[in-house]
Design the sequence.
């Protein structure tokens, strides 16, 4: 299966859909990531805090796919914020991944009370200049935080990975991203298999296209211009989730799914939620 791509603001190629790896561990985790690569996923999303960078690196080596086709994302955790700390954190990630380059490096959470995301961002710029990282971006950043990074460094993040699903459509933040050429990446795009998938509007839209509810929801992300990164440990579901490029929702269907808006899944407002 071939997943279409877009071009990031730094010229990098970026898939319209990727693979989440949170909670994939051990041999089963490696197998799941290999299976995702076999299916056609090229964007893989890990983080120091997922404690599975080794598994992702092993899967990359086990897959028969050319390294340059893969976009390996990892993230600097809150406890490593700061200029020197971020440089060291990246080297730790490269060691665990067993790779010589991170393709997309993100600040996992802004942790505003720590107050060091700007220094962290400056280190990421350095890592990109040094060739250890290809693209740099952030996760869970608000419009105000993005503005600060851009104003202080002149470097606009390529990606902002944020909570996004039909219950939390992030329309204002997405408009800001569009205005600044920042690619939106959707975390928990399926709401971790919550009640969303049995909402009447979701099952109706799915039935209209003879697809599954997860496919209808993932197609909604694609049509918003966001890159969802669904996680599944199962090859059949991985295939189902990636198979969203041969049908299109109508504008009314996109609007109907957006009409499910009700807010975040949990209390994860990045202005107050901290993850170290
Ligand atoms: N930057 C951040 O702060 C965050 C980033 N993330 C990233 O986003 C990724 C995706 O989000 P995540 O929270 O994992 O949740 P998702 O919304 O991707 O949902 C994953 C859940 O849905 C199930 N599932 C997947 N596909 C199907 C299907 N076709 N049918 C039925 N069930 C399905 C999975 O089960 P099963 O595996 O059994 O198939 C799993 O339980 C993460 O893995 C991580 O990489 C997530 C949260 C925060
Ligand atoms: O999955 C991620 O990237 C996270 O940041 C998680 O820690 C997520 O926030 C979570 O599951 C917290 O319970």
Sequence:
């Amino acid at each position: 299966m071939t997943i279409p791509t877009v071009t990031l603001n730094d010229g990098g190629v970026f898939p319209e859909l990727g693979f989440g790896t949170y909670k994939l561990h051990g041999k089963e985790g490696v197998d799941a990531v290999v299976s995702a690569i076999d299916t056609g996923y090229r964007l893989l999303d890990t983080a120091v805090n997922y404690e599975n960078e080794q598994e992702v690196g092993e899967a990359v080596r086990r897959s028969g796919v050319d390294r340059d086709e893969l976009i390996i994302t990892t993230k600097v955790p809150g406890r490593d914020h700061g200029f020197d700390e971020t440089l060291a954190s990246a080297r730790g990630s490269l060691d665990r991944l067993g790779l010589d380059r991170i393709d997309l490096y993100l600040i996992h959470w802004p942790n505003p009370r720590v107050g060091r995301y700007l220094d962290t961002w400056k280190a990421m710029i350095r890592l990109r200049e040094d060739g250890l990282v290809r693209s740099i971006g952030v996760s869970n950043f608000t419009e105000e935080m993005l503005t600060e990074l851009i104003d202080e460094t002149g470097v606009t993040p390529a990606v902002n990975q944020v909570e996004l699903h039909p219950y939390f459509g992030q329309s204002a933040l997405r408009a800001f991203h569009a205005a600044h050429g920042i690619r939106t990446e959707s975390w928990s795009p399926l709401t971790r298999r919550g009640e969303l998938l049995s909402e009447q509007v979701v099952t109706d839209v799915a039935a209209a296209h003879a697809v599954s509810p997860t496919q209808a929801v993932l197609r909604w992300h694609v049509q918003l211009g966001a890159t969802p990164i669904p996680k599944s440990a199962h090859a059949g579901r991985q295939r189902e989730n990636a198979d969203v490029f041969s049908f299109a929702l109508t504008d009314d269907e996109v609007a109907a799914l957006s009409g499910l808006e009700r807010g975040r899944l949990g209390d994860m407002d990045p202005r107050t939620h901290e993850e170290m």
